[in-house]
Amino acid sequence: MTFSGLVKSIVTGLAVTAFCVPAFAADTIKLGVAGAHSGDLASYGLPTVNAAKVVVEKVNAAGGINGKQVELLIQDDQCKPEQATNVATKLVSDGANVVLGHICSGATKAALPIYTEGKLIAMSPSATNPVLTQSGDYPTFFRTIASDDMQARLGVDFAIDKLGAKKIAVIHDKGDYGKGYAEFARKFIEEGGKAEVVLFEGVTPGAPDYSAVVQKIRRSKADVVIYGGYHPEASKLVNQMRKKRIKAKFVSDDGVKDDTFIKVAGKNAEGVYASGPIDVSNLPMYKEAIAAHVKMFGTEPGAFYPAAYAATVAMLTAIERAGSTDYDAVTAKLRSEFVDTPVGKIKFNERGDAEGVGFSMYQVQNGKYVELK
Amino acid sequence: MDWEFFIELGLGGLTRGSIYALIAIGYTMVYGIIELINFAHGEIYMLGAFTGLIVAGVMGVYGFPAFAILLMAIVIAILYCAAYGYTMEKVAYKPLRGAARLSPLISAIGMSLFLQNYIILAQTSDFLPFPTLIPDFEFMEPIAHIFGSTDLVIVAASAVSMAALTVFIKFTKLGKAMRATAQNRKMAMLLGINADRIISTTFIIGSSLAALGGVLISTHSGQLNFMIGFIAGVKAFTAAVLGGIGSIPGAMLGGLFLGLTESYAAGYISSDYEDVFAFSLLVIFLIFRPSGILGKAPVEKV
């Protein structure tokens, strides 16, 4: 080969490569993954990256989606809103087709206007702030986790529709979790208009005696008590209510759906209702997802892994069903067709919340929490 | 005005106040004699509750009647806690008798942490259920919805033990020696009173009352863990200061005062601010009457 021949072949090679790149790019589906991958909250974000890697490897090994390979664009927002906007801008300009993320509600909220403008679907496995879906401001946002107010909604609907409550006392433990639940519950009861909130009170965790609150419950003549908080106060409250011969039914949250509650409240725990996450640990796909993580990374997955796995599967399946990455076609599929995921069979409602994900009501029966179907 | 609600809250406050008073006496007696705030006192109360739980667990297996279990649990908890109180004084406070006032205080905080962690290691950090040892009395049934059998037993037991303590302090030789030591330890020693023994006795009595409180309250609230001594201790200490620290009738009065205030504030205003009322009361007292309800302003000795 002469020197000029060498140059020629290099030039040709370069030209071929140069032509190849855009052609190749058009043939991949770009899945953006945004979340906290470093910093204090990295443990919330990294399992999502792992989930995306596991799913994508499986999909690519099986020939990709509609004949295209899936490519990951991983971006770290450290759960900081100002970082999240940068990440979102970068993903949009890099041509991501869909985004898995973000992780924290604050960062997600900061990034969403950019995705809305760029018509880019973002699906979070962990952002639970109710406003994200309920405000209607972010039509491109979806999530595979129940929003914070879902439990309160479930508790209120259960109390009114199943237990026929007319007068409801809402009690909480003054903590973020309990009070948040109680405030949502009060809001839903008042909006529904079918029952009234006759008492809204906080109890002091650790106090030896709740008799003043118990007397107020009696005086309010409530037929259902909705309690937001954790099990130590709940068991004390139930015990003292029953001791003072108050028969009002007791409905509570995930903090009370704990076996310690039954152990401590003993026979007074019988008949208590508490909501808890739908049990998915027996789903074959859930087991498969966990096993795939163990195989790939050698460890048990971290927080939000099943939800992130579900989000990745849901988005890729929707693209496959739509036959393209066109925003309107993909959203239509997300909203209309069920997909099997590790967190159950899900589809999304108009607001972007997953149906079939979240909580169900449990009742203590013979010393055990039994899921009420 | 709704009198029924007023009475209900009053009875609730009475139960709560008796509990505070029982524990407050331990604080106030120790302070009266060696001017030390025994921060580990709440932990003695917690130990009492745990001892009661163990006794109740063992006796429950053999099927003793509830009331026998309750008595036995109280007696053993008292013996056990008295031994703890005695040992605690010997280990943590006696070596510091002549030291600056801050040293025994820090020693007390250390003792408190030690006892909490001891329970975490030896028992558990989880919440445990405490069996209902006080049966529902037939004759209480008509008013059980406002004042149950448990409340009755707590109030009665507190009243009896406080009356007994008052008689003991006022009329027995040991009680006199105790008062003398509280007034002026050096003088009492010069007159042949064994001050060390008096101090030990004080710790034993305070711890016994705390143990009694621990068992009764746990059967009332139905649960316990290693932290229950902390809040009860803080509240009882507040009660002791309200009543005038160092004064035994003051501690009783302070406990009831605090219990009733909390109950009425929770009932008529909001239980969201229960602790706010308790501690605002403390602040107001500290500003306007620092010596408490029955306390005497300290006379500077020249």
TrEMBL record, chain A:
Name the record gives this protein: Branched-chain amino acid ABC transporter substrate-binding protein
Keywords, alphabetical: Amino-acid transport, Signal, Transport
Signal peptide: 1-25
Domain Leucine-binding protein: 28-354
Keyword set includes Signal: yes
Classification via SUPFAM superfamilies: Periplasmic binding protein-like I
InterPro entries, per database record: Leu-bd, Leu_Ile_Val-bd, Peripla_BP_I
GO biological process: amino acid transport
Family: Belongs to the leucine-binding protein family.
Record field: transmembrane: none
TrEMBL record, chain B:
This protein's UniProt keywords: Amino-acid transport, Cell inner membrane, Cell membrane, Membrane, Transmembrane, Transmembrane helix, Transport
GO cellular component labels: plasma membrane
Coarse class of the protein's main subcellular location: membrane
Cross-referenced InterPro entries: ABC_transp_permease, BCAA_transport_permease
Membrane topology of this protein: Multi-pass membrane protein
CDD domains, A to Z: TM_PBP1_LivH_like
Name of the protein in question: Branched-chain amino acid transporter permease subunit LivH
Organism of origin: Halodesulfovibrio spirochaetisodalis
Lineage: Bacteria, Pseudomonadati, Thermodesulfobacteriota, Desulfovibrionia, Desulfovibrionales
